[in-house]
Specification:
single chain, mainly alpha, 7 helices, 2 strands
């Protein structure tokens, strides 16, 4: 097998022909603490190699774990980064009132309910979630 065709277990270094077979082995063959320790080490090395905070999409380039593996072990991608001592690029656990205030300010500025694109381009927070989130918060432009 060539490197492009193998998927490595981040704990024991075992090689597998598919990500699924690696994932099954990883999930069943190692303790939680072994998984956490191995992923922390790999995330730190990835951060060093990239010379920046790793993104979820960077995991597609790795043959040792997927973004969903990190999320399943730590609860979320950002919690995995924090466990590795890496400060996530985006804030998490934003208070509803703070998000509502930012959304309302943006709604006032653009004179309509903000869309995801508006938040990505102009908002303090990007990737705020779905349209349902905005509807739940009942953000409306002030007329």
């Amino acid at each position: 097998m060539t490197d492009a065709e193998t998927y490595e277990c981040p704990v024991c270094g075992g090689e597998f022909s598919t990500p699924r077979s690696r994932g099954g082995h990883f999930g069943l063959s190692h303790s939680d603490s072994e998984k956490e320790e191995a992923l922390i080490c790999r995330l730190q090395n990835l951060c060093e190699g990239l010379e920046r905070i790793p993104k979820r999409c960077d995991m597609e380039q790795c043959n040792w774990a997927s973004k969903s593996t990190v999320a399943s072990v730590f609860g979320s991608w950002n919690k995995g980064l924090v466990a590795a001592g890496i400060t996530p690029a985006q804030r998490t656990n934003i208070e509803k009132e703070e998000l509502l205030s930012v959304l309302q300010e943006l709604a006032d500025e653009i004179d309509r309910t903000p869309r995801q694109k508006d938040m990505d381009e102009r908002g303090e927070f990007s990737s705020i979630g779905s349209i349902e989130t905005l509807r739940e918060l009942q953000v409306r432009p002030v007329v």
